[in-house]
Each structure stands twice: as structure tokens, then as C-alpha cells.
Specification:
- The protein has 2 domains: 150 residues, 3-Layer(aba) Sandwich (Rossmann fold); 116 residues, Rossmann fold.
- The protein is built from 12 helices and 11 strands.
- The longest helix has 16 residues.
- The radius of gyration is 18 Å and the shape is globular.
- Bound molecules: D-glutamic acid.
- The site of D-glutamic acid has 17 residues, from α3.
Length: 276
């Protein structure tokens, strides 16, 4: 099978494995080439200019593997640099996290009160609000949006503390205003937040629908690419650094054993074999 038939996925780090998990379940016959920029994560606290530069370099790296489709798993990149990825992709379809999640949120929200949570960069960009407003207009629906940056959710998920009391305390603090606003739908606008979905649901209440942006985007990939074919296992995972605890964290996010991961540099296409 040629590399042309792969789906390229990239993220600021290994959070994007939560999106790969959804791709594995919806399009198991597709070969995934993943790049996680673990040397420069997090993106969510960086300036727009820096994230756009990183997005350009990440896309260039992925393009060397000739993907037939690019999934921008990182919500921060999807929010501030999707145009950068699209212009480099030069006609290759690009799926970001924002548009599919917004369509789904408007579709399922009965009250039209929609909450969005994400990194600082994602929330400051207002990319979700803008897309929700445009989409609601197209669909002839009335909506109200409420956004909140939840930066501590990322380290909590990486530490594996999603079931601990500290996660609930932090979630109560962050989500208070959205709960008060009585949103009936909440977009999880960050790769890491599905890991915390249990505590987020507990704090928001059972009546609130959580939208997993990665799962909805994976559904979009399935619609584009179809779902026929045998399950594949020859996926390729690249990262720019192999930090401590990488394996266990990756496996938690992916929900299964992490295949061999290779470390690469940005400048070239060669691969450094890494003993893990
Ligand atoms: N992947 C990022 C996102 O989805 C979260 C981690 C980071 O800040 O880089 O926004």
C-alpha cells in the first residue's frame, strides 16, 4: 500500500492521540501517519505568531509522507492556523476540529445555549464563537455562546489525575460560569479534555451534552473516506521528542498499546530510531 493512501494527523504533542483513538474506531481500515510536536508542546499558551510558525513546520513535515487527507487534531492550531495548513496542503483536504464540532453542537442543542472550553489561545481567538455564529446563521438558528479557557485541564489529564478530587475542584472553578449560564451543550475544544469527560459531565450535570471535537471530526473523515476495508495496523507515529512517561501517557490517550514511535527533526525527512 503506498504512502499516498495515508491520513496525516498532527498535534502539538500526544494529546492528538485522543483523536487517533476516534479515527481507529471509525475508520479502522485507514493507515494513520501521526506527528506530535512533543519538543514544543504546549501550543495553547503561546502567541498566535508562534503557533502559526509551528503549524507551518508541522504541516511541511507531514506532507513529506504524502497524505491524502490531513486531520489537524490540535484545537489550538485549528483555531489560529487552519488557513496556514490549508494553503500548504495545496488542495489536499484538511479537517480541523472546529467546524464539525460547531455543526454538531448547533444540531444537538435544544436551548441554543452552547458552551466552549479550550486552551487560552483557542478561547482568545474566538474561532469557535465565530464558527458557531456563522453556522447558526446558515442553519437559521438562534444561539448564545459562553466560552472559558481551562488551561489546567491539560496537565491534570497528563498527570492521570482525572479521577482525583483536585480534578473536580478545578472543574468546578472553571465551569461555574457555564453551569450558571445553563448551557445545554458543551464543546470539548482541546485534545486532552475527553480524558476528563467524566468529571466535566459530573460538574455540568447529566442534562448537558458534551461534544468531543475529535470524535465528530473522525466521523467527518468517515463520511469523506467511506468505511469499507480491512483493519490496518501499519500506522506510523512520529514525535519531535520522546519525553519521560511518554509510553504510558500515549497509551492512556490512545486507549490501547502504542505502536513504535520514531523521533524526527523538523528539517529533514530521515528518521532517528529511538530505543524506548
Ligand atoms: N493540543 C492542544 C489543543 O488541542 C492542547 C495542548 C497544548 O496546549 O498544546 O489545543
Amino acid at each position: 500500500m503506498s504512502a499516498e493512501q495515508s491520513i496525516g494527523v498532527f498535534d502539538s504533542g500526544i494529546g492528538g492521540l485522543t483523536v487517533v483513538k476516534e479515527l481507529f474506531s471509525r475508520v479502522p481500515h485507514e493507515r494513520i501517519v501521526y506527528f506530535g510536536d512533543t519538543a514544543r508542546v504546549p501550543y495553547g499558551s503561546k502567541s498566535v505568531e508562534t503557533v502559526r510558525r509551528y503549524a507551518r513546520e508541522d504541516t511541511e513535515l507531514l506532507l513529506r509522507h504524502h497524505p491524502k487527507l490531513i486531520v489537524v487534531a490540535c484545537n489550538t492550531v485549528s483555531a489560529v492556523a487552519l488557513d496556514v495548513v490549508k494553503s500548504l496542503a495545496n488542495g489536499i483536504p484538511v479537517i480541523g476540529m472546529i467546524e464539525p464540532a460547531c455543526k454538531e453542537a448547533i444540531r444537538v442543542s435544544a436551548s441554543g445555549k452552547i458552551g466552549i472550553i479550550g486552551t487560552d489561545a483557542t478561547i482568545s481567538s474566538k474561532a469557535y464563537e465565530t464558527e458557531l455564529r456563522n453556522e447558526a446563521k446558515r442553519m437559521g438558528k438562534e444561539i448564545e455562546t459562553f466560552a472559558k479557557a481551562c488551561p489546567l485541564f491539560v496537565p491534570l489529564a497528563e498527570e492521570g489525575w482525572e479521577e482525583k478530587i483536585v480534578a473536580e475542584l478545578v472543574a468546578r472553578e472553571y465551569l461555574h460560569s457555564l453551569h450558571e449560564a445553563k448551557v445545554d451543550t458543551l464543546i470539548l475544544g482541546c485534545t486532552h479534555y475527553p480524558v476528563l469527560s467524566h468529571v466535566i459531565q459530573t460538574v455540568m450535570g447529566a442534562g448537558v451534552t458534551l461534544i468531543n471535537s475529535g470524535a465528530i471530526a473522525a466521523q467527518e473523515v468517515k463520511i469523506l473516506e467511506g468505511d469499507a476495508g480491512a483493519k490496518r495496523s501499519d500506522h506510523v507515529f512520529f514525535v519531535s521528542d520522546i519525553p519521560r512517561k511518554f509510553q504510558s501517557l500515549g497509551e492512556r490517550f490512545l486507549g490501547r498499546e502504542l505502536p513504535t514511535v520514531k523521533q524526527v527533526t523538523y528539517e529533514e525527512a530521515w528518521v532517528i530510531e529511538h530505543d524506548s
